Write the structure tokens for this entry.
Amino acid sequence: MKAAAALIVSFMVFLVAGIAGTFLNGPFDIFAAASLAFLVPYGLLLVFCLRGKSWAYVGSALLSVILILVTAFTFDQKMSPLLLWETMVSTLLFALIALESFKSFVELKKP
């Protein structure tokens, strides 16, 4: 269960550091700015995951799956190489969060 929380924290740190690097090294990108909005739901889900709420694990798994699907539509040929790399790595983190959150949910529901 703590692994799912650790993955969420690592995604949040990666997102903030990556977007800061994108803003410092390249032109302003609307996708980078908009992706900072996902700190709020992941932050709330993290708080409830640490409290042991099973629905928070389901929520983080569903949010991660949705973001994996949405990420496919954000690829643009004008995207900077740094932002492209960040998007690919964040997709991997989304997949890991989804799998680990689902596993944690199943562990919480075991009698």
Summary: Residues 2-109 form one domain. The chain has a mean pLDDT of 86. DSSP finds five helices and no strands in the chain.
